[in-house]
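Many introductory courses stop at the sequence. We go one step further.
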Amino acid sequence: MKNKIKIMTVFGTRPEAIKMAPLIKELEKESASFITKNIITAQHREMLDQVLTIFKIKPDFDLNIMKKNQSLSDITVTVSQDLAEIFQKERPNLVLVHGDTTTTFATSLSAFYQQIPIGHVEAGLRTWQKYSPFPEEMNREMVDDLSDLYFAPTKKNYDNLISEHKDKNKIFITGNTGIDALKYTVNDSFDSPEFNDIDFSKKIILLTAHRRENQGKKMEKMFQAILNVVKSDRNFLLVYPVHRSPAVQKAAYDVFNNEDQVKLINPLDVVHFHNLIKRSFVILSDSGGVQEEAPALNKPVLVLRDTTERPEAVQTGAIKLVGTDPYTIEHALRKLVSDPIEYKKMAEAKNPYGDGQSAQRIVSAIKYYFDLNPCRPNAFV
């Protein structure tokens, strides 16, 4: 057999790690064909390390770039420079990146400068608005311009790439690897001491919020609107794993501190977080990944953003885009928690993002690209 294909995965944040983990595990099964090396930038150090431990992933290179108050420019320069040296020495046949982080963009730029092919996992997501979300929208657009292989979760993402004149022969509709990750993390009998202070006899309203464009007074007003609904019924309990951003911490504690129907907790590892979604009643979030994970667990999601790059779940009715206006948020949440028909319609809507086999499709596509598979893999539908 000819020499094995060397593949390098590069990621730096918790969401990237969660979605790359199933793919790394699948690549490890193909050791007869591939040499897999994993690089972490540690753009988010602590939360990233939790995922590595849970999925038993050992990085071959750790750039350890995280520093206090680092800017997007700091991350871009440091990652691209540090990776250049590794790429020059290792000369991988393919670099795999995920999604839309600054690590993803800087990695793709560095690989491009070394003329190394790039595979983009979760390609083709778009809001078509430059600053929404910021900086993710431009990160993913620029990464797709640099990429050689596109692993699009849905047909909509495929269509976006085609509209940008990407080569259809290089685009593969795979589903989203985030749904694959749920197979590793969710357990109906899961329990943990970290949940001891959460009263699951209550209806849990789970909140996640951290986006830069939502921070400041806007976030405080959003939180107050949510609190108004929570306090309207003693059977509600708001649980908020608070992001470590100082701006998010300030907003959360200014609004929610000392409220007996609110539990402010530390950020959770992926296993605890996925199982908390499973046991919640309603999800409020400005996250991207939660828009995919919660529908897979039959939980309605109100998205605290004005735009979403994941319109498929809006179309099926699994999520609802409610924006950032406090009145709109409060009205939508009151309706959802008080209207059984509305709740049932959202909870039972089809999840359009995956069937748990996305990583297998991506590996098959990579083998096809390198002429190790004669047949193009079937698309996720």
